[in-house]
Amino acid sequence: METFSTRDLLVEVINKLFVYTDSQAWDKLQNEVFTETVLFDMSSLGGAKMDMTATAICEMWKAGFAGIDSVNHLAGNYLVDIQGKSATVFAYATATHYKKSAVNGPTREFVGTYDLHLTQKEAGWRIDQFRYNVKFTTGNRDLT
Fold first, then answer.
1. Based on CB atoms within 10 Å of each CB, which residue in 7, 17, 22, 121 is the most buried?
2. Which CATH number belongs to the domain containing residue 132 in this structure?
3. What percent of the chain clears pLDDT 90, i.e. is strictly above it?
């Protein structure tokens, strides 16, 4: 049986965030990635920083991805800081969205960074704070 470091376990949760989002595995996101309530901040794209339930985050993303044929996140450059039963992870990431039927171009891309806070729960590490910092976007922003 292999043993994983705390850092490995934290990075695995972040990778699950992106893989489960891309595959729209909403139940897995709620059960394996997020705490029940998350301090959620995507204000760099508009909107407000607020406490949201994991269910509400997944419902929002599910609605946002409706009609999109494919979503692909690539993440890396993880900087991990562990403080007992809490940790912060910084990551670079790109998200490419593809919609074959879009008249003004089939793709849009978001390039930015994530500041994530995780807490160790009985079931494992979970994200309880999520901040996305967009650097720039390219392509057909509305996928119209």
1. 17
2. 3.10.450.50
3. 97
Domain count, the chain: 1
Alpha carbon of 131 to those of 44, 57, 69, 82, 117: distances in Å? 9, 13, 25, 18, 9
Q: Using DSSP bridges, classify how beta strands 107-121 and 34-41 pair: parallel, antiparallel or unpaired.
A: unpaired
The model's pTM? 0.96
Model confidence over 17-69: pLDDT tens digits?
999 999 999 999 999 999 999 999 999 999 899 999 999 999 999 999 999 99
Q: Answer whether residue 1 shows pLDDT above 80.
A: no
Average pLDDT across the chain, whole number: 97
Q: Could you give the CA distance from residue 15 to residue 79 in angstroms, rounded to a whole number?
A: 14
In a domain, 53, yes or no: yes
Instruction: Identify the DSSP state of 144.
Output: -
From the number of C-beta atoms within 10 Å of its C-beta (0-12, 13-18, 19+), residue 144 rates as exposed
Q: What is the dihedral of CA 116, 120, 124, 125, to 10 degrees?
A: 10
Distance CA 75, CA 2 (A): 24
Domain that holds residue 119: 6-139
